[in-house]
Amino acid sequence: MSIVNNRLTAAQYEANFSDIHPPFETRDAALVEANRCLFCYDAPCMKSCPTSIDVPKFIRQITTDNLKGSAHTILSANIMGGGCSKVCPVEKLCEGSCVYNLMDEPPIPIAKLQRFSTEKAIAEKWPLFQRKPSTHKKVAVVGAGPAGLSCAHTLSREGIDVTVFEKESKGGGLMTYGIAAYKVTPQFCEDEVNFITSLGGIAIQYNQELGKTVFLSDLQQNYDAVYLGVGVGLARQLDIPGEDLRGVEDAIRFIYDIRTNGFPSTPVGDKVAVIGLGMTAIDAATQAKRLGASEVTIVYRRTQDEMPCTEVELDLAKLDGCRIVWLAAPQEIVGENGQVTQLICSRMRLGEPDASGRRSPVETGETFTLDVDMVIKAAGQMPFEELVNANQLENRKGKIAIDGACATNLSGVFAGGDCVNGGKEVVDAVQAGKDGAKAILDFLNGWDG
């Protein structure tokens, strides 16, 4: 057993990481599905979308061959509607709410139709929006992820001049660096960022990190308002012996390396254990398998009823050959010569519900051992508590506290997205950006400075 790169051929990598949700092959195929839509009044699909995309309207526009109008309907509500069509857990949102589910028929493939409407608009930078004349008000946005970009685009449409400060070398945040490569490609992420900024009035400064190269006090002084969309990204530690051995990786870094270095350059073990069962854990496990690991075992301390990921994601991991071990928690990582060789796990049982409402895992006293050469930690992410405290932001264990108007305790400083809620879906971050932009516009309009 060993951790190596280049396990597969170029053809195998291409096949393993090809688009998991391919688009409609023909316009007629899209029209067949669009014409199944019942165009419900008070549509449940629209209600279940955090950004309130008018689903019946955009689908009806497809049926009338009004692709530009359909794209405008989607992107007016969700400027990252193209990306969301690829990564949203639609089975628990719009498609999960489709009335066809009550008729024992397949739901309308809303995400696939949304992709059909937006892909060309994004690739070709259709001028769907017109920016109002500049108001000469300036807003700084920290973070070029879904929340920050959504906020920036909404503000720019209203004539606000926006500067976005991003610590990475590319925009897109989680979309670019934190999601499985077979769901959304780096090229699409780049196209989406370019489409958003093509409106004008948005300048992104890359390799600018809050607290290192750019400082909140300076932004407060030089801009009329500041929006913080810094997300989360610190991997939760297991706090068990052996966590510092070679071969122990956090899932965020593992996925980041795949996205930045490419498939052949990313090393993976032969026998891999993944700790956790959220969406990030699934992305790490499936990609480890697709990079050439012979065995991938997902270890989860609760049962399927309590898992954070969706059934669709779980099925994807199973189809990729990943094994799931339920009611198991890591106890110790064992190694030889500084390299991981085994993972010792405790067998658990479920006790009383905890603060999350899920039944708490309780140790039974029994253990078992997995022979592994790589352990990927995906037990959750933590906010940037040190950064938040250093900027005197009121917070709850690192999650920035805001009021009903997205305002922090610092005058003129607003926040939203994962840095506030601790981590939700991309579509939730987009809506948070819209809410933040509205709050900032209200703040600027009421300011006579």
TrEMBL record:
Q: Which GO molecular function annotations are given, in alphabetical order?
A: iron-sulfur cluster binding; oxidoreductase activity
UniProt xrefs under SUPFAM superfamilies: alpha-helical ferredoxin (SSF46548), Nucleotide-binding domain (SSF51971)
**Which PROSITE patterns does the entry mention?**
4FE4S_FER_2 (PS51379)
| Domain of life per record | Bacteria
List each copy of the 4Fe-4S ferredoxin-type domain by range. 28-58
Q: Which Pfam families match?
A: Fer4_20, Pyr_redox_2
Q: What is this protein called?
A: FAD-dependent oxidoreductase
